[in-house]
Amino acid sequence: MSPASAYRWSMIVAILVMVIWGANFPITKYILERIGVGPFLFFRFLAMPLIGFALLALIYRKRWRYAVPKRDDWARFAACGMIGHAMHVGIVMWGMNLSTPFSSALVLTSGPLWTLLILAALGAEKLRGPQVTGTLLAFGGILLFLSDKFTAGLARAGLGDVVLLFAASLFSLYTILVRPLVSRYGPLVVLVWTLVVGAPPMLLITLPAALALDYASVGWLTWWWVFWAITVSSFLGWLGWAWVNAVRGIARSAPLQYMMPPLAAVFSWITLGETFTWLKLAGAVVVMAGVAWAQFASSPAARNTTQADAG
After folding, report:
1. Burial of 183 (0-12, 13-18, 19+ CB in 10 A)
2. What are the backbone angles phi and psi of residue 91, rounded to the nearest 5°?
3. Dihedral sign, CA of 19, 31, 158, 266?
4. Do residues 8 and 247 lie in contact, with contact meaning Cβ atoms separated by under 8 Å?
């Protein structure tokens, strides 16, 4: 495929991934309501490494040594596996179980703000006036969006959104840590070996819940969406988005991620009947505007390490 053709196809793939990820918020909510957080996490962390190793063996079958990380990189792989998979994914699922699809998508969009703050704390990026303004605007929008929940006390949905804010910060830290590995090894190798670290503790933690699940009561439609969420949305979606970033560059592809909250809202309204007040819609607009302002007022280096969390 020529570079020009790859660039054209990358836009098609990017939009397709955004649609899949936007729809994944209500799909995940549907799954969690029927089988719970623990069993879903168990199936996810059982299936994804197996799929990854099967694909890795197919691609690197005659040059396996290129698919194995160097010894000096294992500490970073371990950190990325624990932060990006075990901690981040587990906390995201817990938060989504306590929140709504639209709230989850919107709050997780704050990921680029956390990335900028972490870079600034590490001294890799100096925050400028527009970045500070955008950051404050986005957090103000989140507070506006959640205001109706907090006025009634820290309800379950409000707690879920706070949990998701923390999860977004973990994903931002993972994004910064994993970038050098992706540059050296490619997205598939990084995904597989970080799962090797992150999956085992999650399998041990969630095994009791998976054993306690009443499998006879789970319908075929739920199993289909479990398969879709793990293989299509999580695995193939992640690889597709990594390819889009490699072809288009993160600075060009990142704005497309702001499609996720409105797409999640539409899919959630159609499938789950989620409703939105004007206050929530106004807060959502302020959040996305603030995130965009903060992200694209940053330096080119910071834009190349800043992404929103796909959930």
Report:
1. exposed
2. -70, -35
3. positive
4. no
Q: Which two tokens stand for residue 195?
A: 């799962």
- Torsion angle in degrees (nearest 10) through CA of 127, 130, 135, 139: 160
In angstroms and rounded to an integer, the radius of gyration of the C-alpha atoms of the chain is 19
* Residues 213, 48: Cα–Cα separation, whole Å: 20
Cα four-point dihedral sign 270, 271, 275, 281: negative
Neighbouring residues of 75: CB distance < 8 A, sequence distance ≥ 6 = none
Give, in degrees to the nearest 5, the angle at Cα 280 between 275 and 282.
130
DSSP codes, 157-175: HHHHHHHHHHHHHHHHHHH
Task: Give the contacts of 145 (CB within 8 A, at least 6 positions apart).
Answer: 103, 106, 279, 280, 283, 284, 286, 287
Q: Compute the distance between CA of residue 80 and CA of residue 85 in angstroms, rounded to an integer.
A: 7
Question: For residue 217, how many other CB atoms are within 10 A of its CB?
Answer: 9
Contact 100, 216 (CB under 8 A): no
pLDDT tens, per residue, the chain with 311 residues? 677 787 788 888 888 988 898 899 999 999 999 999 999 999 999 999 999 999 998 888 878 888 899 989 999 999 999 998 999 999 999 988 888 887 888 778 776 667 667 777 776 556 666 666 766 776 677 667 666 655 554 444 467 778 888 888 888 788 778 878 888 888 889 889 999 999 999 999 999 999 999 999 999 999 999 999 999 998 888 788 777 877 776 556 666 777 777 888 888 888 888 777 777 677 777 776 776 666 566 555 555 555 555 55
Residue 153 burial (C-beta neighbours within 10 Å; 0-12, 13-18, 19+)? exposed
Global pTM reads 0.81
Distance CA 124, CA 115 (A): 11
